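Milestone M4 deliverable, item 7.
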Amino acid sequence: MPDAAFLPGDRVDLRPIEEDDLEFLHQINDPRIWRAIGASRPVNRTQEQDFFENVVCGDDTVNLLIVAESTPVGTISFNSIEWGAQRAEIGYWIAPDHHDQGYGSAATERLVSYGFDQLGLHKVDARVFAFNEASQRLLESVGFTKEGVHRDEIFVDGEYHDTYWYGLLEDEWRSRDE
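Output delivered:
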């Protein structure tokens, strides 16, 4: 049942990505999305299908669709899960028509909570490009701390850009409401 929420929330639900969602995922070709996530090459339907079959359906990541009032608005995932170190990297994107509505923050809070409460993670990392100020604000609003910078790490729009690394430890997450 494609509409079943895996992680229901007040503002958004997070549900598994299904093959029927591939048309929505194809929006990654929108420059407002690919630029922010550093995917500077177009993705065709065959590549999207391959991503679905090899990444989404694989066991090494957690990939979820962000849904607001039954409408897909973006994706969120844990990538690079290191079970021994109990850490994962979070990544997300929101469709441009749904920016500035709090969906990214709500989804990030929900997935981070799941990571600490259910997966036993100790730390969640995130990478953000220096020009993506909205994503930096999102991470900081959820409690992430900027930990470092990788200089000139990504080539977008004809120039190199820095990548900021953010991190959130489990005890920081749990103490945020105290």
